[in-house]
TrEMBL record:
Domain AB hydrolase-1: 67-291
Source species of the chain: Streptomyces fuscichromogenes
Protein name: 4,5-9,10-diseco-3-hydroxy-5,9, 17-trioxoandrosta-1(10),2-diene-4-oate hydrolase
Superkingdom per UniProt: Bacteria
Molecular function GO labels: hydrolase activity
Spans traversing the lipid bilayer: none
GO CC annotations, alphabetized: membrane
Assigned keywords, A-Z: Hydrolase
Gene3D superfamilies: alpha/beta hydrolase
C-alpha cells in the first residue's frame, strides 16, 4: 500500500526557526514532530502512541529525503495503539542536521540516538532499524549495550563501509545508480532508477513520492552541502558481534539489490541466538514495501519478549 499525503504542515523549531513540510509522504504532521538542538545540529524525530517505547531508525537512500516517517509510518500506525513509536531521522536526513563529519558515519548516528534517548529520559529501548538504521542499531548495541533491550534489524551490513561478500557482486547494483543520482541531482530519471533498485514493487514509487523527494532535496541545500563536505571512515564490527546478547531478530528482503541476502546469513552466523526473517518479493526497504507483514513480525517478536518476562516490555509501559 502506498502512503497517502496529508495537507501541508509547518512547525516552529525550538531554535526559533520555522519549518514548513509540504512533503507529507516524507515528513509527519507537525503535531507528531519533535526536535532538539545539539552541538551536532538539530535532531528530529516523530512520535506517536503510548506504552513500551520502540525506537525506529531510518534506512539509507536518496539524500536527504529518505526519512523515518517515509520508511516506518505505516508500521508505527499499526503498532501505536500498544507502543510508543519514536521515529528518528539521522543527521543530514529529513529535518535532522546539517552536520559535517570525518569519521565512521554510524558513530555520528549513534551519538544522535544517545542524545535522543537522554532527552526522552529512556534508559533502554527496543531498537528497530533497516539498512543504515540497522547498522546504527548494531553499533549502538556494541558501544552502549546498556541502552538496548532488544534488536529488530536488517537489510544491513554489520560494519561502516560494508562487509565482505561471498557470492554477490561488489559493489552492489544500487550503488552505481546512487552515484549517478548524486552527480545529476536534478534528474528525475536517475532518482527513479535509484529508487527502483531499492524497491522491488515499483508501483509504490508513485509520482507524488518522487516529486516530494525532488522538492525536498531542492530546499535542503545545507544538508546536501554538509554531506558533500563529509567523509566516512570504514570500521569493521564483525569481530565484535558475538558480544551482542540482547534478544535479536534479523530481517531482510529476498530481492535486495543494495545489500545481498547473504549478509543476513552472515549476521545470523555471528549473532548466534538471532532469529532470521526473510520477506519474499521485497527489496531493500521491507518496512516500506511490506509494512503490514513487517508489523506482524515485529509485533510477534515484542509479544514473545513480553511473555518471557523481558523487563523492558513489562515494566517500561510508562517510560519517558
Amino acid at each position: 500500500m502506498a502512503l497517502t499525503a496529508d495537507p501541508e504542515v509547518s512547525e516552529a523549531r525550538d531554535d526559533g526557526t520555522s519549518v514548513t513540510a509540504p512533503e507529507t509522504l516524507l515528513i509527519a504532521p507537525a503535531d507528531l514532530r519533535r526536535t532538539i538542538s545539539t552541538s551536532e545540529g538539530v535532531v528530529h524525530w516523530t512520535e506517536l502512541g503510548e506504552g513500551t517505547p520502540l525506537l525506529f531508525i531510518q534506512p539509507w537512500g536518496p539524500h536527504p529525503g529518505v526519512t523515518a516517517w517515509m520508511a516506518f509510518a505505516e508500521v508505527a500506525q499499526e503498532l501505536s495503539d500498544r507502543y510508543r513509536c519514536i521515529l528518528l531521522d539521522l543527521p543530514n536526513y529529513g529535518l535532522s542536521g546539517p552536520v559535517e563529519y570525518h569519521e565512521p558515519v554510524h558513530d555520528v548516528a549513534v551519538r544522535a540516538v544517545i542524545r535522543l534517548l537522554d532527552e526522552l529520559e529512556l534508559d533502554r529501548v527496543v531498537v528497530v532499524g533497516g539498512s543504515m538504521g540497522g547498522t546504527t542499531a548494531l553499533d549502538l548495541a556494541l558501544t552502549h549495550p546498556d541502552r538496548v533491550s532488544a534488536l529488530f534489524v536488517g537489510s544491513c551490513h554489520a560494519s561502516t563501509g560494508g562487509d565482505p561478500y561471498l557470492l554477490a557482486p561488489f559493489p552492489p547494483e544500487a550503488i552505481s545508480y546512487y552515484l549517478a543520482s548524486v552527480e545529476d541531482p536534478a534528474s528525475e530519471f536517475h532518482l527513479r532508477r535509484f529508487l527502483g533498485s531499492l524497491v522491488h514493487q515499483h508501483e509504490l514509487l508513485t509520482e507524488e513520492l518522487v516529486s516530494q523527494m525532488i522538492s525536498f532535496r531542492e530546499r535542503s541545500a545545507a544538508h546536501i552541502e554538509a554531506e558533500a563536505a563529509s567523509a566516512t571512515v570504514a570500521h569493521s564490527n564483525l569481530g565484535d558481534l558475538h558480544r551482542i546478547t540482547c534478544p535479536t531478530v534479523i530481517f531482510h528482503g529476498r530481492i535486495d539489490r543494495m545489500v545481498p541476502l547473504e549478509q543476513a546469513l552472515m549476521l545470523a552466523a555471528y549473532i548466534r541466538h538471532a532469529d532470521l526473517v526473510v520477506f519474499g518479493e521485497c527489496g531493500h526497504w521491507p518496512s516500506f514495501e511490506r509494512p503490514h507483514q513487517f508489523a506482524i513480525q515485529l509485533s510477534t517478536f515484542l509479544k514473545a519478549l513480553n511473555h518471557s518476562g523481558h523487563p523492558d516490555t513489562t515494566t517500561q509501559e510508562n517510560a519517558g
